[in-house]
């Protein structure tokens, strides 16, 4: 049984979220508190498998509670976010939150996809925590460095754990990249705006939240929430096609779009994330002669997406996040 600590200042929201979690298999809310300070005290005195924190609470907010909890023990923390605290939510991911989920807007008719995602987040947070105990050192599992790779475009896909990984990669980029980088990070509308702005603070290269019709230059482009991102004729094309793998944007839309257009001139990176988004796209990139690199299990927050690509036998290299950074800089540097 997964033991959950829930912290939210709204009595109504505490009841709603607790009742929802009570419907999940093998998950139980064993303690409920109304602010971050009480959550920290609970973690000091009791054992939990996962902590769920509201971002904004009195006495101690979710961000400071997250920091304090992480100093006590490495328990997974999922943030409950609202539309008015998107920037704080992005900050929480930097401070070590496992993931976040938007509070449901219509509490009387909650989207089944939201319920599924929330349950999967809780389960994945504990599965990942157990899997990574005693496995902290980055390692290269598989490499194929015989090819002379000179891509003209880089595409990156990520989900759970992706924001922190992407911040690390973008911060380490050369002062001026020589080819464009396009990124799909699973993230809702609005949050991607704040995340693009945050990435932009970490590099001298320009980071854009992509807009429809943008001409691709030597810059970094992040797919906006609630839109799939594709390429056509050197321009970004956004669309509202149905969700894929339960998400929009989906990595597969971007990967498949560049596969046929760029062939062997594209290199794809698939980072940490739940599910299998990006694997089919990597298969098409491989089929058209492109090059695929995934993040290794040891440095992933969740190994789901990279593992799915490995299972399809379409991966050229599987590397630690640090090694991915070095490889990325090799491709985009002058």
Helix content: 25-40%
Mean pLDDT across every amino acid position: 91
Q: Beta fraction of the residues?
A: 15-25%
| Secondary-structure-derived class | alpha/beta
Secondary-structure arrangement, i.e. CATH architecture of the largest domain: 3-Layer(aba) Sandwich
How many beta-strand segments? Answer: 14
Distance between the termini: 52 Å
CATH superfamily of the largest domain: Methylesterase CheB, C-terminal domain
Please tell me what the overall shape is: elongated
Biggest beta-sheet profile: 7 strands, parallel
Radius of gyration based on Cα positions: 20 Å
Number of helices: 11
Query: What spatial order of strands do you see in the largest sheet?
Result: 8-9-7-6-12-13-14
The first-level CATH class name of the largest domain? Alpha Beta
Give the topology string: H per helix, E per strand: EHEHEHEHEHEHEHEEEEHEHEHEH
Can you tell me the number of structural domains?
2
Could you please describe the fold and organization of this structure?
- The chain is α/β, with parallel strands linked by helices.
- The chain has 2 domains: 2-132, Response regulator (Rossmann fold, 3-Layer(aba) Sandwich), CATH 3.40.50; 153-332, Methylesterase CheB, C-terminal domain (Rossmann fold).
- It is 37% helix and 20% strand.
- A 7-stranded parallel β-sheet has the order 8-9-7-6-12-13-14, sandwiched between helices. The chain has a 5-stranded parallel β-sheet with strand order 2-1-3-4-5, sandwiched between helices.
- Helix 4 packs across helix 7 (191-200) and helix 8 (251-262) packs parallel to helix 9 (279-287).
- It is elongated, with a radius of gyration of 20 Å.
- Residues 130-141 have low confidence and may be disordered.
């Amino acid at each position: 049984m997964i033991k959950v600590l829930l912290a939210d200042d709204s009595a109504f929201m505490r009841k709603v979220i607790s009742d929802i979690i009570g419907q999940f298999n093998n998950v139980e809310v064993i303690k409920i508190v109304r602010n971050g300070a009480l959550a920290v005290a609970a973690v000091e005195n009791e054992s939990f498998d996962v902590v769920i924190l509201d971002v904004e609470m009195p006495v101690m907010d979710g961000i400071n509670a997250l920091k304090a909890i992480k100093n006590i023990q490495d328990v997974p923390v999922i943030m409950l976010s609202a539309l008015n605290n998107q920037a704080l939510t992005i900050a929480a991911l930097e401070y070590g939150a496992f993931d976040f989920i938007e509070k449901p807007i219509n509490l009387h008719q909650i989207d089944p996809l939201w319920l599924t995602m929330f349950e999967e987040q809780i389960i994945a947070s504990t599965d990942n925590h157990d899997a990574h105990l005693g496995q902290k050192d980055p390692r290269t599992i598989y490499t194929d460095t015989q090819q002379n790779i000179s891509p003209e475009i880089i595409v990156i896909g990520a989900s759970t754990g992706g924001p922190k990984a992407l911040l690390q990669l973008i911060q380490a980029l050369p002062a001026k990249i020589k080819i464009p980088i396009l990124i799909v990070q699973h993230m809702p509308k609005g949050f991607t705006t704040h995340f693009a702005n945050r990435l932009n603070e970490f590099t001298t290269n320009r980071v854009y939240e992509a807009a429809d019709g943008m001409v691709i230059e030597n810059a970094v482009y992040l797919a906006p929430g609630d839109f799939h991102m594709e390429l056509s004729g050197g321009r970004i094309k956004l669309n509202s096609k149905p969700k894929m793998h339960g998400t929009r944007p989906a990595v597969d839309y971007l990967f498949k779009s560049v596969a046929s257009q760029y062939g062997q001139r594209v290199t794809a990176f698939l980072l940490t994330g739940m599910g299998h988004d990006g694997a089919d796209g990597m298969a098409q990139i491989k089929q058209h002669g492109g090059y695929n690199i995934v993040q290794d299990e040891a440095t992933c927050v969740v190994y789901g997406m990279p593992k799915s690509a490995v299972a399809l036998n379409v991966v050229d290299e599987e590397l630690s996040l640090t090694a991915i950074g070095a490889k990325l800089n090799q491709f985009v540097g002058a």
